[in-house]
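pinned: reference chain
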Amino acid sequence: MSKGEFDFIDRIRTAFATPLAEGFVGIGDDCAILPTEGDHDWLISTDMVIEGVHFLRHDATPEDVGYKSAAVNISDIAAMGGEPVATFLSIALPKDAQGEWAERFIEGYRTISERYGVALLGGDTTSSVRDIAINVAIVGRCKRGTALLRSGARVGDTIYVTGPLGNSGAGLRAILEGIERTVEVERLIQSHYRPTPRIAEGQQLGLSGRAHAMMDISDGIASDLGHICKASGVGAQIELDKLPLSTELQTLCAQQGWSATSLAASAGEDYELLVVGTPDLAQHIDCPLYPIGRITEGTSIEWLSEGRKVEFSQKGFTHF
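pinned: its structure tokens
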């Protein structure tokens, strides 16, 4: 019996463990890689967005849902250091989401697609008995051989993130708990509904020659870092006091008695990039990078506070 989401994924990977042609990369990274005979590789990914799991229809606007549906897929391309090219959208709608809701959804989807120059090339529509279900497949590309996988981390590497963590998780918690929507709280909520895919940053990192492994932060670093460590056969140390936190997050957490550190490490859906590379990587990249730890020998992840090991039980988000 499957123990959880990632065990289920491992079972699927084992069931389809047929040898791939040279240059192909399958299950286990943010995108599959399909090499070409030209100077680039194709990047393919897909993600689902489900009502009641990824958004609450009574709170999120249709435009927010459309925006986020495209954004989380564009972020997968960023995680490989690639350029998004096109998407395919499939959507199942109950009767009360057909018509105006659907049209406004498409406006949100179009807004972010145009921002990143991503074409919508097709998909499917169908009815749903109750909830909205959305699936997006995305196609991107990168310079041949430059895609950053999860398996490239090396002992001695530094672990970085590209921006503040925990904003999305705090925004979601504010929604669920009915927190008063001040300007600061609304910014956190917008981080949840309208994340920013780090395409420019990902491309710089992919071409730097100094970044060795990368993925986007969808489930929180407490979970996502484990994927890099497992794929690379390494361990890690994370300095909790170095996690970048926004002023809005710190203010809200102080007011509500929440742990900003726990949200930053485990809440997920920030869609910043988690990067592993050389200790001097930040000096060669024209974008913010925040060092939060290092890659070590072994297979475990250790958590430090003020240089000392601490117990940290947060595990990040899983669907099963």
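why pinned: The two ends are 12 Å apart (CA to CA). The chain is about 35% helix and 25% strand.
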